[in-house]
Amino acid sequence: MAMFSQNPVLDGPNYSFAEAPQVRADGFREHRFNPYTDNGGTTVAIAGDGFAMMAGDTRSTSGYSINTRFAPKVFKIGGSTSSQEDANILLSVVGFAADGEALKERLDAICKMYRYRHGKPMTVNACAKRLSTILYQKRFFPYYVYAILGGLDEENKGAVYSYDPVGSYEREQCRAGGAAASLIMPFLDNQVNFKNQYIPGSGVGHALQERERTPLPRSDVEVLVKDAFDSAVERHIEVGDALQVMIITKDGIEEKILPLKKD
Amino acid sequence: MDHRPQAWGRPRDDVYGAYDASYMQTNNGPTQHTQQPIVTGTSVVAIKFKDGVVIAADNLASYGSLARFTDVKRLRKFAGTSVVGFGGDVSDMQYLDRHLTELSIDEAYKSDPGHSLNARNLHKYLSKLMYHRRSKFDPLWNSLLVAGLDDDQKPFLAATDLLGTTFTSPSLATGFGSVLAQPIMRRYAPDEESAAQLTQEKAVEVIKECMKVLFYRDARSMDKYSIAVITKDGVDLKENEKLENQSWAFADRIKGYGTQTV
What is the per-residue burial (b if ≥16 Cβ within 10 Å, else e) of B14-30? Predict the structure, then answer.
């Protein structure tokens, strides 16, 4: 922990070495069971015109050890069976994996109950609100996860909703979550939302015009996501092994597994 | 007179005075949770091969650095089709063992013949149990490996720990084994495809090699161990194996770590 605490990019909870007894101000050592750990990993979600793409690496870590090289963290939600063939929503969870699994199973059960009672799948924005309330219900013993929900809205436009562990959420065009979020998010700001991009020769000072924002085509997004993860793998030890990509369009959900560096 | 059933068979208060329950152990204090493991088992190692899974753990239960119990069996059969390997607190292991015995009896009565819980079902059950207990701030201080076959009769191997974290991999190890044994096993089974090529003989050989390395370098380990091979034909569990052909002959070739000057 101390090794990286000076690094502003990795500031905040990162490696889970908090097992040692805490020394209190009065000098007594306090043994306390820590119900959380950090399993590393990173997720990215980007909304396009007629699609939404969710991606996550498949490495699961504890400290410097790799638990497994293949633990997917993007899930189909709310299909009518456990095979999730007719699912219309994607959920990615990163942070504490056991909480992530519990959260996924709860949201999935709720979406399945909705489908059973109403005879139609839940819309993405309804599901997004519901996920927020689920997270907030555990406000004082939170699910330690950064969740991102993806799907298509009523106009078949890509929708991405991002959350903090206690349920604050907003709809966005793109979001990175987890261990390397701080490495990937600025790249996405520039490449998806065209931040700091201006029209050449449009003027100086206030006359300078920003590049017009438009949703990216799918081919561009696929390249962007792969590049983002390849870069994160180089600079973050908790990211790597394989990249799981899910693309949701009006024709359904496609899944791809691409290799990443395993070092 | 008090005719309520609660009073039946008890000394009457109006004759003998109020019953003095002070000698009884009543739990009036705060509820005690496991704060730390006391008697512990060390690593469990396991690897998949083409027809099943091999899993092993030594027979030692340590009390801190004291080798306290030397014949503790840390591999447990379930329903004749799966094996659970326990690391961590031994009393919590014994609790889980009783719990699983009860579960398997209930399941044997309830379900149709040939439809008992398989390893995947068992792992899901145990991980839910572990997560539930951590959420109550009363964890079962163990890391578990569950080995067996899944719904499609394919080899299944998964882990869960005191936090309820779960993962699967072609090879798994708990405790010290995750740093000492896992790199050895990953040489033979880096991915599912290569695990599906491994023969049973090779897998057993790799596991025995891992147990030997662990005995060399894990101070809380022992040379007596249990090993189980799980295939379609059932579980072959041997609980009194002994490591063979160890030698520290290589030790005098190791240089550069200590204070030696030559």
Answer: eeeeeeeeeeeeeeeee
Show residues of chain B in contact with A96, CB under 8 Å.
Answer: 163, 165
**Distance from C-alpha of B118 to C-alpha of B53, rounded to nearest angstrom:** 14
CB within 8 Å: A67 and B139: no
Instruction: Tell me what pLDDT residue B3 has.
Output: 78
Residues above pLDDT 90, as percent of chain B: 76
User: Which two tokens mark B205?
Assistant: 């050989």
B164: tokens are 């309820």
Per-residue pLDDT tens for B114-134?
788 999 999 999 999 999 999
- CB B33 to CB A67 under 8 A? no
Pairing of strands A60-62, A52-57: unpaired
Tokens at A28, concatenated: 């007594």
Rounded to two decimals, the pTM is: 0.87
- Cβ–Cβ contact A102 with B under 8 A: yes
pLDDT surpassing 50 at residue B182: yes
Burial of residue A258 (CB within 10 Å: 0-12, 13-18, 19+) is middle
Bridge partner list, A139:
none
Closest by Cα among B4, B132, B123 to B53: B123
DSSP conformation letters of B166-185: EEE-SEEE-TTHHHHTHHHH
Strands A42-47 and B61-63 come out as unpaired
The angle subtended at Cα A90 by Cα A225 and Cα A154, nearest 5°, is 105
User: How far B134 CA lies from chain A's nearest CA (Å)?
Assistant: 6
Span A58-101, pLDDT tens digits: 999 999 999 999 999 999 999 999 999 999 999 999 999 999 99
Q: Which of residues 53-72 of A touch B (CB under 8 A)?
A: 60, 62, 65, 67-71
Report how many Cβ contacts below 8 Å link chain A to chain B. 54
CA dist., res. A243 & res. A185, Å (int) = 17
Nearest Cα to Cα of residue A175 among A158, A161, A165: A161
User: What is the CA A171 to chain-centroid distance, rounded?
Assistant: 13
Contact A154, A211 (CB under 8 A): no
CA distance A186 to chain B (A): 31
Query: What does the DSSP assignment read for A174-218?
Result: EEEEETTHHHHHHHHHHHTS-TT-B-TTS-SGGG--BPPP-PPPH
β B155-160/B142-149 pair status: antiparallel
Q: Is B34 a catalytic residue?
A: yes
> If you ran DSSP here, which 8-state letter would residue A63 be given?
T
**Where is average pLDDT lowest: A14-23, A248-257, B109-118?**
A14-23
Q: What are phi and psi of B111, to 5 degrees?
A: -95, 160
Among the partner residues A33, A98, A141, nearest to B165 by beta-carbon distance: A98
Helix boundaries (H) for chain B: 13-16, 90-110, 119-135, 177-180, 182-188, 192-195, 200-217
